[in-house]
Each structure stands twice: as C-alpha cells, then as structure tokens.
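Entry 14. Ran structure prediction on the chain below.
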Amino acid sequence: MTQALSTEEQSKDRYFQQLAKVAEDMVEEHGKDFAAGALVLAARWVAENRLGAPEDLKH
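Output, structure tokens:
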C-alpha cells in the first residue's frame, strides 16, 4: 500500500528533484568533480549559515 506524502514531504521531494537536475546539468557541462565539489561547498555554506549573509559577516 502506498501512503500519500505530507505537504512537507512533497515540498522536500520537489527540492530533491531540483537538486538532482542542477547536479545533472553541472556534471554534463563541467564533470563529476566540479559538481561534487560545488554541492559539498554549498552544503558547507548552509552548515555555516553563510547563505545570503553580507560579505563582511561570512567569517
């Protein structure tokens, strides 16, 4: 039996689909090393709360 996804799960699934598409595009255009490095760097920025912060606050 398949269970319907909650609104939050549906939202998260859309983000995973978007990430997959971006990753596929990066691999196609620049290779796997670039794509993996870019995604790791993005994850680091998220973990360090550096997304959208003014440049002088990104330390």
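The mean pLDDT is 91. Will compare against last week's run tomorrow.
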